[in-house]
Amino acid sequence: MKILAMLAISAGLLFGAVDINNATKDQLMSIKGVGDKKADAIIEYRKGHCFKKVEDITGVKGLGDKFVEKNKKDLTVGKCNNK
């Protein structure tokens, strides 16, 4: 079952970018350089903040300019639903 989930996530990346405001933990973990802890950090951060642009993800500890540079084409910012 986990293999099917990972295949679905990978297929999603082929057809669209990950919405950092609304992505699930598994979707966030499909981004290069994001594992379990960083996905949790993104989710925690967005509880109090809305990402208005992809570069705002640098507000999450451990994700800097190099991360954005490497992943910018795979990231998008959708409507913020935390407020």
Task: Write up this protein.
It is a single chain. The protein is mainly alpha-helical and 83 residues long. The chain has a single domain, classed as Orthogonal Bundle (DNA polymerase, domain 1), CATH 1.10.150.320. The chain is 45% helix and 5% strand. It contains four helices and two strands, in the order H-E-H-H-H-E. It has helices spanning 2-15, 25-29, 36-46, 65-71, and strands spanning 18-19, 75-76. A two-stranded parallel ribbon has the order 1-2. The longest helix is centred in the N-terminal third of the chain and has 14 residues, at 2-15. It is globular, with a radius of gyration of 12 Å. The N and C termini lie far apart (34 Å). The model has no long low-confidence stretch (mean pLDDT 87).
What's a concise summary of this model?
The chain has 83 residues and is mainly alpha-helical. Helices cover 45% and strands 5% of the residues. It is globular, with a radius of gyration of 12 Å.
Produce the secondary structure layout.
Layout: H1 2-15, E1 18-19, H2 25-29, H3 36-46, H4 65-71, E2 75-76
Parallel strand pairs: 1-2
- The appropriate CATH architecture is Orthogonal Bundle
Per CATH, the superfamily is Photosystem II 12 kDa extrinsic protein
CATH class: Mainly Alpha
Average residue-wise pLDDT:
87
Q: Tell me the fraction of residues in β-strands, as a range.
A: under 5%
CATH topology tier name: DNA polymerase, domain 1
Kindly state the percentage of residues in helix.
40-55%
The largest sheet is: 2 strands, parallel
